Amino acid sequence: MPPTDALAGLAPLSPRLDHETIAAGLATLAATADHRVRVHAGPPARCQCQHHRSTYTRGEIDVFPAGISDEWHQSDVSSGLIVQLTPALVRRAAGDLGLDPDRAELPPRHQFRDPQIEHIAWALEAERVAGSPCGPVFAETLGLALAVRLLGPLAAPPPRRPRGLTAQQLRRVTDYIEDNLDRDLSLAAIADIAGISASHLKTLFRRSLGQPVHTYVIHRRVERARALLLRGRMPASEVALAAGFSHQSHMTRCMRRVLGVTPSTLTRAPSD
């Protein structure tokens, strides 16, 4: 998808920004001449690439070098902030690091965390939203800092985070939650699915997805309710029960908190 936003006063070495939304279903990434850094910016989103399943949470990062294309299956809508870096900017960063610009390459990396990269990306976005008051030099400086972070010794994968759920446990737990959203879900029952104690589940689940179990369940129920409401085949009271809420007002409160809208607002909105 071509970038729709660029920093005002774009300089040749300045990064470019784009907000990307990937719909559920088959997702494709076309090769481009620029390097791309994607910071996941929305609710948790599940995806599958070949035989590997994963769930992205806010702040997790992907790096797609120039010329790289990709294809995967998206189970949930995914939104992210894309920072595009020109090869010229990356070559300049390589020279600043004392590397051979002709040999410096950005390796592809997926679903990792780096607070400095995330901070730079959001600083670029804040500058764009403010109308670029600091000018193109500021944007270029941030772009160079991002390229240096990706190329330099500090760009190596960060130390392994404390252990969370295994990939198999996480898949079993999230599948169980998804299959039973319309029922009463207890921490003990979910822990049994993972084969661990409830207290252990609370800790490992948060390490894996960055949020407590109950928050994840509420978000999934809100997303199911949203999908059912947009189909327009069921009254809101039935949608609430089908999504696992105790009653319609409970659904309304949760939807307002998670999405910032009410069910009636959704049903009144014109279809895209």
From TrEMBL:
The keyword Translocase does not apply. Coiled coil: none annotated. Residues 171-269 form the HTH araC/xylS-type domain. This is AraC family transcriptional regulator. Keywords: DNA-binding, Transcription, Transcription regulation. InterPro entries: AraC_XylS_family_regulators, Homeodomain-like_sf, HTH_AraC. Transmembrane segments: none annotated. SMART domains: HTH_ARAC.
